[in-house]
Amino acid sequence: MLHASRAEQLRQLEYEWLTLQALLERHPKWGPLLRELRGLPPEEGQVEEPALSLPPAVSR
Q: How big is the CA angle at 12 (ends 31 and 39), to the nearest 5 degrees?
């Protein structure tokens, strides 16, 4: 058969999604962001960076 079954396609997609998530969680920039979006505390030994703030608007 030329085409993989639908179940096999879904298993492959799930595997690729989980692999991508695992790689992103290990990334120095995206890992902490993903943890924050999920509502999880920072990993042990990881310093939480302060939130970025915009400079005050300049009045004319």
A: 25
> Mind listing the pLDDT tens digit for each residue in 7-59?
999 999 999 999 999 899 899 988 998 888 888 887 765 555 555 666 666 65
Question: Residues for the chain: how many in total?
Answer: 60
**Whole-prediction pTM:** 0.51
Q: Using alpha carbons only, how large is the chain's radius of gyration in Å?
A: 20
- The dihedrals phi and psi of 14, each to the nearest 5 degrees, come to -65, -40
For residue 31, how many other CB atoms are within 10 A of its CB?
16
In order of 13, 30, 36, 47, the CA distances from 50 in angstroms are 35, 15, 12, 9
User: What distance separates the 2 farthest-apart alpha carbons in the chain?
Assistant: 71
